[in-house]
Amino acid sequence: MTNNRRDFIKKTxxxxxxxxxxxxxxxxxxxxxxxxxxxxINCAVIGVRSRAKAHVRAIHANTNAKIxxxxxxxxxxxxxxxxxxxxxxxxxxxxxxxxxxxLEDKDVDAxxxxxxxxxHAPMAIMAMQAGKHVYIEKPCSHNxxxxxxxxxAQNKYGKKVQMGNQQxxxxxxxxxxxxxxxxxxxxxxKGEAYYSNNRGSIGKGKExxxxxxxxxxxxxGPAPREAYRDNIHPYNWHWFKTWGTGEMHNNGTHEVDIxxxxxxxxxxxxxxxxxxxxxxxxxxxxxxxxQAFFGAVGTGITPAMVVQHIGLGSQYLATHTDNTGTPxxxxxxxxxxxxxxxxxxxxxxxxxxxxxxxxxxxxxxxxPAIDSYSDLNKNEDGSIxxxxxxxxxxxxxxxxxxTVPNKGFLVEVRLYGALQPYFDRTWKINDVEKID
Length: 436
What we know:
By secondary structure, the chain is α/β, with parallel strands linked by helices. Among the domains are: 3-169, Rossmann fold (3-Layer(aba) Sandwich); 298-434, Jelly Rolls, CATH 2.60.120.600. It has helices spanning 3-14, 31-34, 52-60, 75-88, 99-103, 120-129, 144-157, 171-181, 216-220, 246-250, 252-263, 420-423; strands spanning 20-21, 24-25, 41-46, 65-71, 94-96, 110-113, 133-136, 161-163, 270-276, 290-296, 314-319, 334-338, 344-354, 369-371, 384-389, 400-402, 409-418, 432-434. Helix 7 links the parallel strand 7 (133-136) and strand 8 (161-163). The chain is elongated and about 80 Å long. The protein starts with a helix and ends with a strand. The model is unreliable at 1-38 and 297-307 (pLDDT under 50).
């Protein structure tokens, strides 16, 4: 995301009407015509099973807006939604199964997209090409490259585009951010976001005949073709890489966004993410049922945070890959070169974690860690080489942390009382090097 895109989103969000219904604020895209306009803003809602209900309520609450179309590839979902619309807003919009026909309708001013995630960016770009403004549910894309394509399309076609990170419109969130920035809880240097959901099993899934009510080809759209299975539609596509982005972007998007907002930081320069399938291992989904994500606004191996408290507290740097970007393999051997004169007031330490469980790696040593108080072999210049692997290098046993074959692992460096060279980046730790 570029600063231009950030400015654009801020501007469109700041211009939104002060109307929040079901977690959705009616987007700024229609403001120019709504305020003082005599005609209606004609909207189409695409993907109507769940989030569309909030879209419909918000659009209907504005007297200058009208829902012209409901669109979904599943006839069963459409029928349920039509009944709901009649009861909730007093009319049933026109129904269209193929969104492309809606884009051809010149009377449609804006589209609201609440489809599976693999359709988000392509559909939004096609809508802008057709002259429509776009409100798009989070995440706005299925992968980072599509973000750039969305920004390029908005710049080319000049249409309003707003992503549904609607917590920024919640009065509770707005007040909380104001209080944080006013110093109500002191100086804030770190943000942690959590989302937990005790979801049940989705099963391994078996191939079945596509329901006659579902246009499976259009549902898949720009995604690679797969056989229809009984554990994908209408919701569990979230957990398959072909169509979804897992819980990290299903709900984690909102939580991480609030942290970034509160801290006033831009996108991280580096990211470490690791997780595992602990509860329903062996099922046919791709995405992890537990996942951790660390973002860094700085350099190093991968700092989890950057805190300007000179000589106080602790700093964490972590990586799950070597200097080539390859994930660590517990059966291989690695070396980490720690330069002399590490800029810390107190001490530094290096720990090994199990990449799947996030707990310290279970192996034969009393503790999978080394610190600067340890009796270590030093190089002539005072630097230290640390080793990670299933067997200790000869003569370097004191500098070695054992790893476990068939186990991925995470290397974490902790600086206790980091000094100025760490914060201004005139010092940084080296990358981990694979040595065999």
